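Sharing in case it's useful to others searching the archive later.

Someone asked me privately for the predicted structure of Pilus assembly protein CpaE, so I'm posting the question and my answer publicly. Question first, with the sequence:
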Amino acid sequence: MITIELARRLAHEAGLLWQPAPGDRFVVDAELLTGEVFWVSQLTVEPQTFGEQTVLGFNGTTEWALDSVSLDQALWLPREDQLRALLGDRLESLVRTEAGWEVTYAGSEGTRHTVTDEDVEYAYATALLTL
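And my answer, the predicted structure tokens:
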């Protein structure tokens, strides 16, 4: 799983927008709650739309005393498959090397770039940050 800091960079620097869906991971981006990872599920946490605002509804989580948080208070922690999908057609290859996972992707004007990290999610996220 990527770190909170890397997730913030993806949101702010890369401008990733999140449309919550079942299976998504997130944290409530408040100092006392960033250590707790939540998963969107139709059983406990589900996206709800009120007018034009999306909130994350906490159903049946009495131990947290949370009713809902606005989407701008939640920080998405994208999974490997989601990061790979965001790279889309730019992704050329993913190879396991001695140094870690090597992601090769197309940049602008036909350039090729490579990022390597021990964690495949970090490698994909770093590639997204350079686009």
